[in-house]
């Protein structure tokens, strides 16, 4: 199979999941698109040298590095005293909006750990390797992050009640 087609198939298969992860990390769809686009540009540059079993890990690490590097600093959220008027949310979307706001309260590194552990369903060891930290750091930071989310959201949202 030629590399162009192989890359296109990978993009088609994984692009949406990467966008969801990027959105969970940054809290803004436009920025998530920028992060994913930059991730796939870098992935394409190295496509021939990446071993196929590790493509997902390579792409995930690239996305995280871009997010954590802050090179796209303009996308960082700012807390404002009042939310501007917006179109009414779809039924049932209030919890997702609340979760996005609560995630924005976490530090970028802590948010990355929580997103990787609970959205991407990565193990403690995988998250530690991706972020280059000790497993104990992942455990403590995700515990603190989840506690901060519980405080911000209340038990209702996190327990599904």
UniProtKB/TrEMBL annotation:
The keyword Transcription regulation applies. Pfam families: Sigma70_r2, Sigma70_r4_2. GO terms for molecular function: DNA binding; sigma factor activity. Keywords: DNA-binding, DNA-directed RNA polymerase, Sigma factor, Transcription, Transcription regulation. GO terms for cellular component: DNA-directed RNA polymerase complex. GO terms for biological process: DNA-templated transcription initiation. InterPro entries: RNA_pol_sigma-70-like (IPR039425), RNA_pol_sigma-70_dom (IPR014284), RNA_pol_sigma-E_actinobac (IPR014325), RNA_pol_sigma70_r2 (IPR007627), RNA_pol_sigma70_r4_t2 (IPR013249), RNA_pol_sigma_r2 (IPR013325), RNA_pol_sigma_r3/r4-like (IPR013324), WH-like_DNA-bd_sf (IPR036388). It comes from the Bacteria. Residues 98-149 form the RNA polymerase sigma factor 70 region 4 type domain. Residues 16-76 form the RNA polymerase sigma-70 region domain. NCBIfam families: SigE-fam_strep, sigma70-ECF. Belongs to the sigma-70 factor family. ECF subfamily. PANTHER family: ECF RNA POLYMERASE SIGMA FACTOR SIGM (PTHR43133:SF50), RNA POLYMERASE ECF-TYPE SIGMA FACTO (PTHR43133). This is DNA-directed RNA polymerase sigma-70 factor.
């Amino acid at each position: 199979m030629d590399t162009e087609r192989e890359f296109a198939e990978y993009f088609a298969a994984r692009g949406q999941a990467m966008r969801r992860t990027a959105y969970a990390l940054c809290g803004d769809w436009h920025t998530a698109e920028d992060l994913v686009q930059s991730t796939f540009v870098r992935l394409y540059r190295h496509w021939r040298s990446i071993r196929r079993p590790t493509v997902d890990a390579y792409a995930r690490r690239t996305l995280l590095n871009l997010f954590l590097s802050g090179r796209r600093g303009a996308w960082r959220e700012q807390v404002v005293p009042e939310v501007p008027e917006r179109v009414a949310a779809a039924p049932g979307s209030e919890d997702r909006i609340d979760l996005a706001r609560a995630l924005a309260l976490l530090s970028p590194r802590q948010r990355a750990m929580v997103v990787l552990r609970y959205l991407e369903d990565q193990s403690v060891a995988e998250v530690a390797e991706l972020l280059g930290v000790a497993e104990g750091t992942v455990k403590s930071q995700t515990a603190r992050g989840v506690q901060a989310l519980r405080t911000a959201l209340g038990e209702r949202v996190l327990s599904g009640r």
